[in-house]
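Fig. S4 source data, part A: sequence.
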Amino acid sequence: MSLGSNIGDKKRNIIRALELLEYHPFIDVVQESPMYKTEPWGNKQQEYFINCAAKIKTVMSPWKLLNILQETEKKLGKDIREHWGPRTIDIDIIFYGKKIIYEKKMIIPHPRFRFRKFVLIPLYNISSELIDPQSNKTIRELLDSSDDKSEVVMIG
């Protein structure tokens, strides 16, 4: 999954989201990437983001996991007023094993992750050889072929 924040204490928002998820009885946060300072994507007229990726294990379905992620976002004050606008926290499911899901309320793999260095670079840190089940390309290959020129800087 991918996490991002650009309102308030950005690093703390991400840490708190990961803590809340780790406390859930059916979620195990297995690995976290370093955090990165990144340019906003889409709407450039806003604060920079802090982003990271996390690998989790769960026995929940992707739909139940999505509900838990949305509840976590609400607990942390997520209130989106504009598309690609500022947010205290954003948590996206990028992959769910090798599943490919295309439904109105859920698309897995995440439909735009391949075009966003702020997702690809943290994923690369977790597993450069992870394979996107749609394209059959590794994260390394997707990152190497990315046209995204935005700045992504590791902060810790």
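Fig. S4 source data, part B ends here. The chain has one domain: 2-154.
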